[in-house]
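In the design runs reported in the main text, the only information available to the sequence generator was the tokenized backbone. The following block is the verbatim input for one such run; it is reproduced so that readers can re-run the procedure and compare outputs position by position.
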């Protein structure tokens, strides 16, 4: 009973320290090489309203590749904690990072404290542990915290289930749509929302989401394709050929993106690119970006949202390639892959009887002999090949939305992982 009373008291204290109902936006620059990381504070700004979660403020559902933590300076009470991934850390695995030093913009939204606070931001290495960190003070009376008077971009709700305080707010953002193509964007945005909500477990939690279509006009129609010498003037400056990969579509201009979304209640961002070229990208607690007019648009937007919202890893791999993203002595933080280092923390509890670890693909036939009528492709197991690596990394299902566009949907393990995040962000106090 005493522990419960203490927890309630701590919660009430933390709430009282964030009573302003304002958002603190902090812009950082992450820079380095394949072996170095540095963090620099760029700017702090503030605007009315807080669209983020109001429960579990001092916790995170998954570790991520980094975390940002805000604590009250005097009491040490954790006011807010969020985990994330970054394009910068992904770039560090490229060949370019071995010979060039680069910088990347990163933007984080936190509740504005009513007392002096400290903010600590940490980046984690692929083998765990803190690889870079920075701590700085936030004084809510600081005159150099830029006060923003939002002028919201044109927008409309695709789905509205309640206030920003109660729901998870997802902004569907136009990229490469001219002013004359806005109605096309609204149609594409509706299709994206329909695709996401058609997948379990999102269908069961539909009433916990708001989806807002934000009609940012671009000067040019389409998006940039540097590999073809094509550069477009678009609202978010996105482009293909990220890291010299043809299909990788991202935007590096995060400050510009958040500037244009100011005044719109949002926690998560899905960017729709007005092109029929195949590609996309999804970064946990940063954004999803995908093409709206390719035939695989619907499964791809759901897949990438699995990254940016669901904190899921890619389950596909390359038969002829062993890329060192994951290591045998480190358990990945993503809930849908494992190195078996700490498999007990993953989906061990969901394994059927008679399924071996690792699970051989032919084992489905063995399983079927025990359970007549059971499709071997529906057996939860520990199948080798995931996280881009053909060896040493394992996925829970033969096929899944996080593996192929042809899959029917998310596998049961991915569904549970997504459901946990939804409940984490929306559970009642």
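Verbatim output:
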């Amino acid at each position: 009973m005493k522990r419960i009373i203490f927890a309630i008291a701590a919660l009430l204290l933390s709430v009282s320290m964030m009573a302003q109902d304002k958002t603190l936006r902090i812009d950082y620059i992450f820079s380095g090489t394949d072996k170095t990381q540095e963090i620099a504070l760029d700017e702090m700004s503030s605007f009315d309203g807080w669209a983020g979660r109001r429960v579990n403020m001092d916790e995170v559902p998954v570790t991520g590749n980094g975390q940002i933590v805000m604590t009250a300076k005097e009491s040490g009470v954790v006011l807010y904690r969020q985990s994330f991934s970054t394009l910068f850390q992904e770039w560090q695995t490229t060949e370019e990072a071995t010979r060039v030093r680069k910088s990347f913009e990163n933007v984080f939204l936190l509740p504005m404290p009513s007392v002096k606070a400290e903010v600590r931001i940490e980046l984690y290495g692929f083998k765990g542990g803190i690889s870079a960190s920075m701590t700085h003070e936030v004084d809510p009376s600081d005159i150099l915290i830029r006060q923003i008077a939002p002028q919201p971009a044109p927008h409309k709700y695709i789905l509205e289930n309640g206030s920003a305080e109660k729901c998870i707010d997802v902004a569907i953002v136009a990229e490469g749509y001219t002013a004359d193509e806005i109605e096309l964007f609204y149609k594409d945005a509706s299709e994206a929302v329909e695709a996401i909500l058609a997948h379990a477990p999102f269908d069961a939690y539909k009433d916990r989401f708001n989806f807002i279509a934000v009609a940012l006009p671009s000067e040019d129609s389409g998006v940039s394709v540097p590999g073809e010498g094509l550069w477009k003037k678009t609202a978010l400056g996105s482009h293909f050929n990220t890291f010299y990969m043809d299909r990788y579509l991202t935007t590096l201009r995060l400050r510009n993106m958040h500037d244009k979304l100011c005044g719109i209640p949002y926690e998560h961002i899905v960017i729709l690119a007005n092109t029929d070229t195949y590609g996309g990208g999804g970064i946990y607690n940063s954004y999803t970006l995908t093409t709206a007019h390719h035939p695989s648009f619907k499964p791809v937007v759901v897949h990438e949202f699995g990254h940016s919202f669901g904190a899921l890893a890619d389950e596909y791999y390359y038969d002829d390639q062993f890329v060192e993203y994951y290591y045998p002595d480190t358990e990945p933080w993503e809930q849908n892959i494992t190195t078996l280092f700490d498999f007990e923390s993953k989906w061990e509890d969901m394994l059927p009887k008679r399924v071996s670890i690792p699970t051989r693909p032919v084992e489905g036939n063995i399983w079927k002999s025990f359970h007549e009528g059971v499709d071997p492709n529906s057996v939860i197991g520990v199948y080798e090949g995931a996280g881009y690596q053909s060896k040493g990394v394992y996925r829970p299902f033969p096929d899944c939305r996080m593996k192929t566009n042809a899959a029917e949907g998310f596998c049961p393990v991915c569904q549970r992982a997504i459901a946990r995040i939804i409940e984490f962000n929306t559970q009642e106090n």
